[in-house]
Amino acid sequence: MTTDYYEALGVSRSASTEEIKKAYRKQARKLHPDVNPSEDAAEQFKVLGRAYEVLSDSQKRQNYDATGDENGRSGFPGGGAGGGFGGFGDIFETFFGGGGGGPASRTRRGQDSLIRVRIDLRDAVFGTTKEVEVETAVTCTVCDGSCSRPGTSPTTCPDCHGQGQVQRPMRSILGTVIQTQTCARCAGFGSIIEDPCQECDGQGRVRERKSLKVKVPAGVDRGNRIHLAGEGEAGLAGGPSGDLFIEVEVKPHEVFTRRGNDLHATVSIPMTAAALGTTVELDTFDGAEALTVKPGTQSGEVLTLKERGVTHLRGGGRGALKVHLKVETPTKVSDREAELLRELATERGEERGESTTEHRGVFAKLRERWDAL
After folding, report:
1. pLDDT tens digits for 248-298?
2. In angstroms, rounded to a whole number, what is the distance separating the alpha carbons of residues 57 and 59?
3. Phi, psi at residue 259, to the nearest 5°?
4. pLDDT single digits (tens) 83-122
């Protein structure tokens, strides 16, 4: 027994390659095991994949159209003569009652959901717990997902007698054969919900807003997703729930920026402090830190504080905090300050502000550093 690949995809025999591709994608979304867990859907999904494999290949399709077999082998005595009748496999299948498998299940897995949550940089460093609200589908508490009004249940379809399929005689070159089709009255389910639940309109689920507490691990970064299994939309007719994905967004910080697992900050110091050395206090996520600035520090130098950065997402310590020093040159000076600076320049032999490769004055170095920023 064989399957008509055109019928499996729901396209005509003159369908283009693009039409075949679109039909396959449409059917695959309905029959994929992650969406439809029934055994019947799994079998149909296999047939669908095989049909697409054959019909999307020009040579295999040509062989299949001619002989009913993608390799060009005839499926009936007499070689490829049966190709012009649309495939003898279909006739044999319908003659021997092919296309069975029982009624379809109303139960469907719920869809996955995605929401975004914004956290502070501090929360990304140490981790946190956030409460989020999600509008989603939940199982109807009135009918408990059965889709029927409480006290009632689906009735057996009188047309297919619970089989989900009906058989009708069809004339063919072999005479009258029996063709199996999905029951139109019950849509293949084998039963009819005559008294649906009024709360959920016979869907087995309703829309609801619910709150969830989400544990955000230390080390998460922008774009990372937290996977909560079974917290997505409830499935149809009591089907299993999908999954919920929380995508993290990290708010910009006014002092620190993140690069990988390191934090970076810029601290400005006066040129006098850079020349003479000083101690600067910086508020970090771990508390106040005293930074020692050595005499002669140049603009752009970096002080590194180990284990003060972001926690590694997979464990194993933290990154560093890198403090970039920016030496500020005054733009306005008083007469007295100008006099002192001239005295200093004279003392250092830097009246003309010249610098050489071998020796450069402190102000020339500062100016070059400043221009490079």
Report:
1. 999 999 999 999 999 999 999 998 899 999 999 999 999 999 999 999 999
2. 6
3. -135, 105
4. 333 344 444 443 444 444 578 888 888 889 999 999 999 9
